[in-house]
Write a structure and sequence with these properties.
64 residues; mainly alpha; 97% helix; 1 helix
Length: 64
Amino acid sequence: MSVENDVKEDLEQARPKLELKKQKQEQEKPTQEKECPESKEQEKQRKRKKSSRMFWRELLLVCV
């Protein structure tokens, strides 16, 4: 019985800490989700620029 009581006490003591961690993680999630689309959008723009440069370079080579 004493082992069960010890476990229950440990759980009761750990519960507030775990709840704080959960709250912090939930607060961080929205900011991470906001950051990701920006980086994805920037990556798309870089790819567009790169493909555009390649296109004009090839076109220039064909014309010359």
